[in-house]
Amino acid sequence: MNAVLQCLHAMLPLVTYLLRGEHEVNEKNPLGSGGDISSCVAKLLSDMRLSSSAGPIVPRELKRAINRHMPAFRGTGVQHDAAEFATALLDKLHEDLNRASPPSEPPSTPECTLEMSEEKGIERIAAEFWKAQLARNQSIVVDLFQGQTRSVFKCSSCGHSRVVFEAFNSLILPIESAAGKPLSDIYACLREFARPTDLSGDNGWYCVKCSTLSESTCDTALWKLPSVLMIQLRRFRQLSPIRWSKSSHHVHYPTRSQLDLSEFVPESHQRDAPRYRLLGVVRHKGVMTGGHYTAFVNHDKTLWDLKGREKPADRSAQTPRRAPEHMGSGHHTVAASPLSRAVLNLIPGSPNGWWFFDDATVQPLLKESLVDSRDAYVLFFVRSGTPVDHKLVRSQRDNQPTDWPHMFERVDPSADRFDDASPPHDSSSD
């Protein structure tokens, strides 16, 4: 819990959104917590940033709210999976802050074959899937964390194909090849993720033309990438209903240079170059049933686009604040931020912005090379150019297609309706 919260605390657009109190809680959403989770997270972030006390913060209110609304993470002294906790917490935050009103009828999922996509324009098809997603899901979590994949399913018997675009909040990457060979770096993991796979037997794809589960192929690619990219390295593998194994080999990832995902978004027109810098690392040491979580977190303000912000205050008077407290064998307390009240300032004593969090230990990480850890389990990357102010983040609404990540020309630039958008312009025909 502590390791994940420390990483979320470094995501400044999310922090500014919650701390400014300008958000509306969707109290009628049955999938949310009635604002219980979001208000407790906001209070904890406020305590972490603004408290002047040097003692630890014990987020009892948040833990009680988690017990009430996230039963899979109930109890103390029990270790839970950090990736599952991060996903579940973001999901509850999303449902609490969901701006979308439930539609009177479920939005239909567009049906698309390869032939249809070639005729209509693949980018427009992707936008139609995005519109269907936004009909039910609009929040700061969608704005920051949600991307889109494209999968092409093709029946090996009749050749029928279908194109499906799906939204995602995190990527789960394999760290071994199909032959079981360890993958050495995150680029190799991404290539394995995008490798076409064969589907057969119970895992076959249902072909509407054959009216049965058929042998088929699936080709998956990243299509639209979010401002904050959460990546889970698939270290745990289930061997039997009661046995799991952990792969502990070192998967390298960039810590100083950018993560460039250009090769993994084929054909897609990106608004901005898909380049990322590392924001946080959740590490897991030990085995699945008895491991220990720690975190490396980057509080360097240069990760963010600071346009329109005031000049930072003098850093000379800043001091690290509070350390986390450990309750039993679980991670249910969290450190106050080593940042001062000046939200955007760098932390003194950490020349590269990196800090290490391990229960009651909070210290600057002087050797940046240590961030590339063989124990890395969950990685958080921030996209270059992401604004620090949540008000400058493109708000994803189903009636504001000009703010969507999809590029398409418009018949009338002043129009608000997606239906007024034309297919993307093919510059190659000029």
UniProtKB/TrEMBL annotation:
PANTHER family on file: UBIQUITIN CARBOXYL-TERMINAL HYDROLASE, UBIQUITIN CARBOXYL-TERMINAL HYDROLASE 32
Upper classification of the organism: Eukaryota, Sar, Alveolata, Perkinsozoa, Perkinsea
Region (Disordered): 309-334, 394-430
Gene Ontology MF annotations: cysteine-type deubiquitinase activity
Record carries keyword Hydrolase: yes
Chain intervals with Basic and acidic residues compositional bias: 406-430
Organism the protein comes from: Perkinsus marinus (strain ATCC 50983 / TXsc)
Protein name (Swiss-Prot/TrEMBL): Ubiquitin carboxyl-terminal hydrolase, putative
Record domain USP: where: 1-384
Keywords: Hydrolase
Biological process according to GO: protein deubiquitination
